[in-house]
Amino acid sequence: MTTDTDRTTSTSSRAPARTATKLRQGATAKGTIGESTPRPDGTLKATGEFAYSSDLWHEDMLWGFTLRSPHAHAEIRSIDVGEALAMPGVHTVMTYADLPAETHYGLEIRDQPVLAAGRVRYHGEAVAIVAADHPETARRAAARIKVEYAELPLVTDEATATAPDAPVLHPGRADRHAGGVPHPNIVHRQPIRRGDVAAAEARAEVVVRRDYEVGMQDQAFLGPESGLAVPAEDGGVDLYIATQWLHVDRDQLAPVLGLPADKVRLTLSGVGGAFGAREDLSMQAHACLLALRTGRPVKIVYNRYESFFGHVHRHPAKLAYEHGATRDGKLLYVRCRIVLDGGAYASSSPAVVGNAASLSIGPYAVDNVDIEALALYSNNPPCGAMRGFGAVQACFAYEAQMDAVAAELGLDPVEFRQRNAMSQGTVMPTGQRVDSPAPVAELLRRVKERPLPPERPWADAGGSVDVRGLPGGLSNTSHGEGVVRGVGYAVGIKNVGFSEGFDDYSTARVRLEVLGAEPVALVHTAMAEVGQGGVTVHAQIARTELGVTQVVIHPADTRVGSAGSTSASRQTYMTGGAIKHTCEAVREEVFRRGRERFGHRHPGWAGDAGLLLEGGKVVTGAGEVIGDLAEILGGDAIDIEREFRHRPTEPFHPETGQGFGHVQYSFCAHRAVVDVDTELGLVKVVELAAAQDVGKALNPLSVVGQIQGGTTQGLGLAVMEEIQVSGGALVRNPSFTDYLIPTILDTPSIPVDVLELADDHAPYGLRGVGEAPTLSSTPAVVAAIRAATGLRLGRVPVRPEHLTGT
Fold first, then answer.
1. Is the peptide bond before 297 cis (omega within 30 degrees of 0)?
2. pLDDT digits 0-9 by tens, 443-462
3. What pLDDT does 275 receive?
4. N or C: which end of the chain has fewer CB within 10 A?
5. Where is the composition biased (Low complexity) (predicted)?
């Protein structure tokens, strides 16, 4: 990868020639865009010195704890809190009956009770909350609350959700999706129809129909849900919280607390990962309610067990696909049906459905499609946002199909993909034309042409065996006998930003002033830094646009306008765009003041078209210094707040699914190399190479880190990660002992090839990075396992019994 911004940034002559946006500002300053600027929080996190929300402390705080339901679906007959209240050290106990105002909340549909009212709908639902002077006292008090339950029939899948006698989990629905679904236990349904599928089917020479299943994955962030609510003198509350979206938290909390929005003030605390799970409320309302009730600060920290019940997960899915093609490898049509299990409450299921439907055929040009995606209400754990947001489930299925069709045709799986790959100008199933680079064939070429890792890496020339390189690793289950290698490929497509007509914007406030004789920029946004490195890039943008060295990032809070969610791979595009937009306004004000005060000194002030800010100076396009920024500012700061919006999108048509639904697409391809012990069913992923177009790498090191992190999360879904739910809809493995995630020993070499093909619609030509690698890594790993074993493997995660038949 080259970061010379005056040249085409693709490293291959076969790639489409595109020129990245030329930098005009800050080219000589250190720490501007295009550099791998170190993260300010990196060393602190690596050494354990970083302060997370679980480290918050107030000298007179109480501790909160939540009582949760042991049943997945039950009527609450009675609640007796007397014994809990009588315990020494307990300050209050609250149930649904004690709520002061609105009783429900939700991201899209306000269907989730703050505390269960009348019945519980999933295992682990919050029933009561306790505040006490010690966390162990709060826990013991919660255990003394007596709740009488009467279990109710369960809804666990599509059959039980839509049966004639199915219990309706949310009767009397009045949300905007209620009128468009065939059953009230369906949250949302999105069909997409384009072309003439029946006619295309008649022409097809090869047809492949298969079913697929994706298990429920957890975000598995390391920092549990936690926060501190402090009652304020004005009757409001200050909440210090780890979240992904400060303003949407506030907008849900204010009605629940019975307070105006300006009296619910949120400040971001240290976030130990998110991946979508912190978009919904967890303990925020409970901490605030207890704080306002007791008049004391209240801290809540979930333990790992409780965390599994306290946030949403990735939707498990069942997918039925049918592909038709000509004998020479041209895709003619795709039929598919995607059923997502949304669990007990809606969360972001409607948007996940839209993504799954609109991205369901992958990055391929197919003229005829018949698609249906829907999400169910059930008594399983609630599901919502997770990295990849509906596109992950679809990608596993359509990439398995591409391998299956290629095998039927006798074609190389990469060549078959390349023959059908979309490119700039391709029309999506929704009728939207892709109007920026879509280098799908090139990404596949790059991963395929990369040299393969050596065979039998565990054995040296002398015949010695290093078991760490074998399936099973240090468990010493094999010395290489029965181990077979496989290679697999996959490529995916992910939208960037909020879609379907959502008013997606971000706000930035930039203050430029002289401190200690040096110009300093203060950047204030409400962006949630959840580990993605946004604060680093924001400072790089400010240095680039204002030509200053010193940039201070203000703590994120609700005292500035919304930055939207740290999700959908949108923050660098949106909040980065807002900072760029605001800095441009600040820069123009600098030029205006300079012209007004010093225009008589130099003819270069006459027109500002070629003026730049560099190194704290105003310079002409020819590089001549005509003003000093500190002198121009003097004692008067420039303080500007601006909003930034991407171009508008529109909702998908409710029957045809047509519409300009997404603002941008991102693409990533993977090649997986695995060694499989076919006797024991153990898998060792040897290498997981990636190639991704990022438009413009504002911080190349961070970009590579995002791609490697997303790749590892996809690896987890492929071979180990699943929340297991019993037939009674009870979670069986709510711990990191039983819910397994990849460790450093499971993570293979992940070489990354970065393309920079500018999207002219985006700030600096950039493209969202974080989610696309999570899509294609999963099907690539499973494709490699199929190649090694010859098994179909239509479900993830792949477990040993799937490989051994035991």
1. no
2. 999 999 999 999 988 887 77
3. 97
4. C
5. 8-20
**Sole residue written with tokens 């490699």:** 784
Q: What distance in Å separates the CA atoms of residue 771 and residue 394, rounded to the nearest whole number?
A: 14
- Cα 503 from Cα 176, distance rounded (Å): 17
Give the CA distances from residue 71 to residues 124, 155, 568, 622, in Å, rounded to whole numbers and listed in that order.
Answer: 7, 13, 33, 73
Q: Report which of 312, 311, 314 is spatially closest to residue 340, judged by C-alpha positions.
A: 314
**449 Ramachandran zone, left/alpha/beta (phi>0; psi -120 to 50):** alpha
* pLDDT 10s digits, 76-98: 999 999 999 999 999 999 999 99
For residues 506 and 643, is the Cβ–Cβ distance under 8 A?
A: yes
Confidence (pLDDT) at 17:
30
Find the length of the chain: 806
Q: How far apart are CA 308 and CA 734, in angstroms?
A: 6
Q: What residue type is 223 in one-letter code? A: G
pLDDT beyond 50 at 127: yes
- Choose among 611, 660, 659: nearest CA to 761: 660
- The C-alpha atoms of residue 598 and residue 591 are separated, in whole angstroms, by 10
Burial status of residue 182 (CB atoms within 10 A of its CB: 0-12, 13-18, 19 or more)? exposed
Kindly calculate the radius of gyration of the chain based on its CA atoms and give it in whole angstroms: 27
Beta bridge partners of 677: 483, 682
Closest CA to 594 of 619, 573, 559: 619
Chain mean position to CA 720: 20
- Which stretch of DSSP H or E encloses residue 210? strand 206-214
Q: How far apart are CA 380 and CA 384, in angstroms?
A: 12
Q: How many C-beta neighbours within 10 Å does residue 562 have?
A: 20
Residue 352's nearest CA partner among 178, 160, 499 is 499
CB 685 within 8 A of CB 719: yes
What span, in angstroms and rounded, lies between the C-alpha atoms of 473 and 456?
Answer: 14
Q: CA 4: distance to chain centroid?
A: 30
Q: Which residues pair with 189 in a beta bridge?
A: 374
CA separation (Å) from 69 to 72, 160, 315, 338?
7, 22, 21, 30
Task: Quote the tokens at residue 667.
Answer: 């693409």
Predicted confidence at residue 21, as pLDDT, reads: 31
How large is the greatest C-alpha to C-alpha distance in the chain, in angstroms?
87
pLDDT at 465: 86
CA distances from residue 566 to 284, 394, 526 in whole angstroms, order as listed: 18, 23, 10
Task: Show the tokens assigned to 770.
Answer: 């974080």
Pairing of the two strands 206-214 and 795-796: parallel
Q: What is the pTM of this model?
A: 0.95
Q: Which two tokens stand for residue 163?
A: 């049966």
- The helices-and-strands tally (H runs, E runs) of the chain is 18, 29
Tokens of 124: 């682990």
In this prediction, residues 717-734 reach a mean pLDDT of: 97
Mean residue pLDDT across the chain: 94
Helix (H) or strand (E) holding 400: helix 391-409
**Could you tell me the two tokens for 266?**
């949120």
